[in-house]
Write a structure and sequence with these properties.
Elements: E1 4-7, E2 10-12, E3 18-24, E4 32-39, E5 46-51, E6 58-59, E7 67-72, E8 77-82, E9 91-99, E10 105-107, E11 111-115
Parallel strand pairs: 2-11
Antiparallel strand pairs: 1-3, 3-8, 4-5, 4-9, 5-6, 7-8, 9-10, 9-11
């Protein structure tokens, strides 16, 4: 099991930027695929971006070219840089970890991102 703590959410104007961070309670090096999901009111949770331990990143079509996911294994931390934010990006953003050996999944508590003028 790994505990995940997100930070960095908040209120931002359209066109603005935010960086979300997710810090894990244990090493994520090599054995965890990490990702960011989001859930807007009345909608299902959706994958925003994923970053395997050694594979290519992947993004939802709606955020390609605007969001960047990265990981710093030495700090047990995953980041989501969000640029050119739009009102439709408003949601609770959740950090996700999947152990590639056990397939056990863990979620963070979520952080609110609100894009509004």
């Amino acid at each position: 099991q790994v505990q995940l703590v997100e930070s960095g959410g908040g209120l931002v104007l359209p066109g603005g930027s935010l960086r979300l961070s997710c810090t894990a309670s244990r090493s994520i090096f090599n054995i965890y695929t990490m990702g960011w999901y989001r859930q807007a009111p009345g909608k299902q949770r959706e994958l925003v971006a994923g970053i395997p331990s050694g594979g290519p990143t992947n993004y939802a079509d709606s955020v390609k070219g605007r969001f960047t996911i990265s990981r710093d294994n030495s700090k047990n931390t995953v980041y989501l840089q969000m640029n050119s934010l739009k009102p439709e990006d408003t949601a609770v953003y959740y950090c996700h970890a999947r152990n590639i050996l056990t397939t056990i999944e863990n979620w963070g508590q979520g952080t609110q991102v609100t894009v509004s003028s």
